[in-house]
UniProtKB/TrEMBL annotation, chain B:
The keyword Transmembrane helix applies. This is NADH-quinone oxidoreductase subunit. NDH-1 shuttles electrons from NADH, via FMN and iron-sulfur (Fe-S) centers, to quinones in the respiratory chain. The lineage of its organism: Bacteria, Bacillati, Actinomycetota, Actinomycetes, Micrococcales. GO terms for molecular function: NADH dehydrogenase (ubiquinone) activity; quinone binding. Pfam families: Oxidored_q4 (PF00507).
C-alpha cells in the first residue's frame, strides 16, 4: 500500500465520519419530533430544516471556549479529542461492500472493539478533570456503566466470531448465513441493549442525565469541545448500528444484484439506528442500580449462554 | 501488516480534524475570560468545597466484577480460531463449558451476597 492510497483511504473515512453521524442526528431530530407530535427543526436550509445540524456546528464554532480555573487543564482540553478520534478509526474499519472498507486488517473485529473502548476513556477523562461535582458523579456512573456493559457486548461479538471462525469483519460477513438470524438472536439482543448503554443513550443515560446531573461529565464543556462529545455520540450510533448490520444482519447479503451490496449494508445499518432512536423516545431512564442489575443478571448470563450455544453448534456442525 | 498503514493514516486524519477545528475556533470564537466565567459551575451558586470528593464506594464492586470477567472474555477470541480444529474443537468446548460454569458460579455468589442490590430491605 502506497502512502497515497493510505491517505485516500483516510480521506474517505473522514468524509463518511462527517456525513453519516449528521444524517443520523438529523433523522433523530425529525423522527423523535414526529413521535412526540412535534415538527422538529423546520427553518435552517429551507426544506424541513435539513441544514439544522450544519447551523448548530457553525454556532458551536463561534462559542467561547472556557476551561474552568479548578480543572486539570490539559486532561480537560484533550478529553473531547480522545472521545472523538477512536470512533473515526472504528468507522473506518467497517466493511460496506465486498472489498470496500477504508481500513482492512486481519483482526479488524478486535481492533474495532479496542477503538470503541478507548473512546470511553474520553468521558472518564472529562468527568474527572472538570473538578465539578456533577461531572465527578457523572464520570463515576459512566465508568461503572461502561465496564458493566462492555462485557455483554464483547461476549455477543465473540459469539459471532465463533460462529464465523474469523476475527475479520469481512471474513464474518462472508461466513454469514440467514440461519444466524435465529442461531445468534440472543447475542443480537444482548448486543443492541449493551450498545445503547455503551453510547450512554436513553434509557441508559444515567451518566449524562441532563435533568439531575446537568449533562454529567460534559457539564463544564462549552462550544466546540462540547460539540465533539455530541459528534462522538452520533458517530458511535453509526458504528454500533452498522456493526450490528454487518455481524448479525449479513452486511451486503441481500436480494438484487451484488453491485447493490453497499446499499444493503447502509440500509440495514440505518434501520438499526432508527431502532436506537425509537428506544430513546419509548422508554424512561433507568435508575443506577437497576441499570447494573440488568447488565449483570440478564445480559451477562444471556451472553454466556449464547457463547456456549454457538460453541456447541459449531462443534456439532450445524 | 500492510493494512496498518491505513490505520495510522486514519488516526492521523482524526488528529488533524481535531486540530484544524481547534484552530478555526481560535480564529472565530470570541475570548472574554473573566474570573467569574472560570469558576466551577454549580447551578448558579458559588461552588462549595472542591469537585474532587469521596463518593459512593459501591461502584468499586462493579470494577472488581469486571476485572474478573473481562480478562476471561479476552480468551474467547483466540478460541474462535481453533474451535473448528478437529483435534482441539471438542476438548476446547468442554474446557470452555467448565470455565463458563466457574465464572457463572462467581456471579451467582456476588448476586446472592446482595452486591447487585442497592436498596436495603
Amino acid at each position: 500500500m502506497t502512502l497515497l492510497e493510505a491517505a485516500l483511504r483516510a480521506v474517505a473515512a473522514l468524509a463518511a465520519f462527517l456525513v453519516l453521524p449528521l444524517l443520523v442526528g438529523q433523522a433523530e431530530h425529525k423522527v423523535m419530533a414526529h413521535m412526540q407530535g412535534r415538527l422538529g427543526p423546520m427553518y435552517a436550509g429551507g426544506f424541513h430544516g435539513w441544514a439544522q445540524l450544519v447551523a448548530d456546528g457553525v454556532k458551536f464554532l463561534q462559542k467561547e471556549d472556557i476551561t474552568p480555573r479548578a480543572a486539570d487543564r490539559w486532561v480537560f482540553r484533550l478529553a473531547p479529542g480522545v472521545a472523538l478520534v477512536p470512533y473515526l478509526l472504528a468507522l473506518a474499519l467497517l466493511p460496506v461492500h465486498p472489498g470496500v472498507a477504508a481500513v482492512d486488517v486481519p483482526g479488524s473485529l478486535v481492533l474495532l472493539l479496542a477503538a470503541t473502548s478507548v473512546g470511553a476513556l474520553g468521558t472518564l477523562m472529562a468527568g474527572w478533570s472538570s473538578a465539578n461535582k456533577y461531572s465527578l458523579i457523572g464520570g463515576l456512573r459512566a465508568a461503572a456503566q461502561l465496564v458493566s456493559y462492555e462485557l455483554p457486548l464483547v461476549l455477543a461479538v465473540a459469539s459471532v466470531a465463533l460462529a464465523g471462525g474469523s476475527l475479520s469483519l469481512v471474513g464474518l460477513v462472508d461466513a454469514w448465513s440467514p440461519w444466524w438470524l435465529l442461531w445468534q438472536l440472543p447475542g443480537g439482543v444482548v448486543f443492541l441493549v449493551a450498545a445503547a448503554a455503551e453510547l450512554q443513550r436513553p434509557p441508559f443515560d444515567m451518566p449524562v442525565a441532563d435533568a439531575e446531573l446537568v449533562m454529567g461529565a460534559w457539564t463544564e464543556y462549552t462550544g466546540l469541545r462540547f460539540a465533539f462529545f455530541l459528534l462522538a455520540e452520533y458517530a458511535g450510533i453509526v458504528v454500533m448500528s452498522v456493526l450490528f448490520a454487518v455481524l448479525w444482519l449479513g452486511g451486503w447479503h441481500g436480494p438484487f444484484p451484488d453491485a447493490l451490496g453497499w446499499l444493503w449494508t447502509l440500509a440495514k445499518g440505518f434501520v438499526v439506528a432508527l431502532v436506537v432512536i425509537w428506544v430513546r423516545v419509548a422508554w424512561p431512564r433507568l435508575r443506577e442500580d437497576q441499570l447494573q442489575r440488568l447488565a449483570w443478571l440478564w445480559l451477562v448470563p444471556l451472553g454466556l449462554f449464547q457463547v456456549v450455544l454457538t460453541g456447541v453448534g459449531v462443534v456439532a456442525g450445524w | 501488516m500492510e493494512g496498518y498503514l491505513a490505520v495510522a493514516a486514519v488516526v492521523l486524519a482524526g488528529v488533524l480534524l481535531v486540530t484544524a477545528a481547534m484552530v478555526a475556533r481560535r480564529l472565530v470564537a470570541p475570548r472574554a475570560v473573566t474570573a467569574a466565567g472560570r469558576t466551577t459551575y454549580e447551578s448558579g451558586v458559588d461552588p462549595v468545597g472542591t469537585g474532587w470528593a469521596q463518593s459512593q464506594v459501591r461502584y468499586l464492586s462493579f470494577a472488581f466484577l469486571y476485572v474478573v470477567f473481562a480478562v476471561d472474555a479476552v480468551y474467547l477470541f483466540p478460541w474462535a480460531l481453533v474451535l473448528r480444529d478437529s483435534s482441539l474443537g471438542l476438548a476446547s468446548l468442554v474446557e470452555v463449558l467448565v470455565f463458563v460454569g466457574v465464572v457463572l458460579l462467581g456471579l451467582v455468589h456476588a448476586a446472592r451476597r446482595g452486591l447487585l442490590r442497592w436498596d436495603l430491605r
